[in-house]
Amino acid sequence: MSNSTENATLTSARLDAADPLAAYRDRFFEPADGSVISYLDGNSLGRPLRATAANLTAFVQGEWGSGLIRSWDEKWMDEPTVVGDLLGATVLGAAPGQTIIGDSTSVLLYKLLRAGLDGQAGRDEIVIDRWNFPTDRFLVEGIAAERGAKIVWIDPDAATGVTPEDVAAVIGERTALVLLSHVAYRSGFLADAPGITKLVKDAGALMMWDLCHSAGSIPTELDAWGVDLAVGCSYKYLNGGPGAPAFAYINSALTGRLQQPIWGWMGAANPFEMGADYEPAANVRRFITGTPPILAMQPLKDMLALLAEVGIEAVRSKSVALTEYTIALVREHLVPLGVELSSPLDPAHRGSHVIIDHPRFAEVTAKLWEAGVIPDFRPPYGLRIGLSPLSTSFAEVEAGILAIRGVLASMS
Ligand SMILES: *Cc1c(COP(=O)(O)O)cnc(C)c1O
């Protein structure tokens, strides 16, 4: 072991010892065989909470197995808005009555984009950036083709992400809505959401944020910022499990005015009337389409309870400490091997992951996975290090960076 390695080890041990949230890591499941050395992909799939295993069993035996169909009347019909309100209060900065859980992010993006565009008579432009997540871009392209709208592309600096200046340069009287990611999935750039939202609203357009890479790790104030629409995943920093349903936020000022395009009985004013014509619910339930995914939204409730206990501001502080430490270790151990740091260096402009680039990172990632060190790879040659604040330790970060160094060194 070299001296610098010993120093890093000391530092990670000291950082973990001083971390007020360190003990929460034990709330998450870890395989007993020690096969996972370092999990650095909580931004793609959060770890399960230990409580979730027990609560799912209790759900199967209780609400489902014993309550049977009665549970729909007693509880489940309201679950999409009850859990949505909890998410709104704990993480989003949203008052009750504006958030629902259901569908996938892609489907909710479709519904809200269509509703927003159709609700902006006389405006036919959708603004999005070229670095946005593929599903966001594809949906905008599909909807533009379907509705004869025009797409206005922002081509941001890859290193900085979309700035208020980028947005100001393209919005105007024809802008119907603007769709941006709060945290860029690749670079980790954290957009100035309040600043951009204000610009967009002042231009008479609707602002829609994709919160997939921020919800659960970065506080938002959707109501206070005046955001119109937002969507996000619950399987990333919200630990809802693979394919867990997404969430949608619709500002109450818009609820009655917007009409979503997938008319189903569960979004109707009175689903059990079994009526002849579709009349949408007057409240946020009008954005629901079919039977809500009750079983799949149970694990999310466990994570929301934990986030309520810890507080989202404390979570953000740890996230910043983790990404700062990651960057320091990358500089010390990987930059000398030719690795490039491609995330913003200022934590005020950075989400909860860090991306580093090297031409051999596809091979490196495959070798790391075999060894129980688990980041992910994003083309052309980015290795993404996701720091899920409540389940990642500083020691894990250090073990991960040293493992990357070891694999890279063995290849050269
Ligand atoms: C993860 C992610 C998605 C995923 O959408 P799904 O419908 O859940 O597959 C969408 N947008 C962004 C920005 C993401 O990070």
TrEMBL record:
Catalytic activity line of the entry: L-kynurenine + H2O = anthranilate + L-alanine + H(+); 3-hydroxy-L-kynurenine + H2O = 3-hydroxyanthranilate + L-alanine + H(+)
Q: Does the keyword Disulfide bond apply?
A: no
Keyword annotations for this protein, in alphabetical order, are: Hydrolase, Pyridine nucleotide biosynthesis, Pyridoxal phosphate
User: Any one Gene Ontology biological process term?
Assistant: NAD+ biosynthetic process
Which SUPFAM superfamilies does the record cross-reference, listed alphabetically? Answer: PLP-dependent transferases (SSF53383)
Keyword hit for Hydrolase: yes
Of the GO CC terms on this record, one is: cytoplasm
Taxonomic source organism: Paeniglutamicibacter cryotolerans
Q: Which family does it belong to?
A: Belongs to the kynureninase family. Belongs to the DegT/DnrJ/EryC1 family.
Q: Which InterPro entries does this one have?
A: DegT/StrS_aminotransferase, Kynureninase, PyrdxlP-dep_Trfase, PyrdxlP-dep_Trfase_major, PyrdxlP-dep_Trfase_small
Q: What is this protein called?
A: Kynureninase
Provide the assembly information.
Homodimer.
Tell me which EC number(s) this protein carries. Answer: 3.7.1.3
One Gene Ontology MF term: pyridoxal phosphate binding
Gene3D superfamilies per record: Aspartate Aminotransferase, domain 1, Type I PLP-dependent aspartate aminotransferase-like (Major domain)
Q: What does this protein do?
A: Catalyzes the cleavage of L-kynurenine (L-Kyn) and L-3-hydroxykynurenine (L-3OHKyn) into anthranilic acid (AA) and 3-hydroxyanthranilic acid (3-OHAA), respectively.
Pathway note? Amino-acid degradation; L-kynurenine degradation; L-alanine and anthranilate from L-kynurenine: step 1/1; Cofactor biosynthesis; NAD(+) biosynthesis; quinolinate from L-kynurenine: step 2/3
The coenzyme or cofactor needed here is: pyridoxal 5'-phosphate
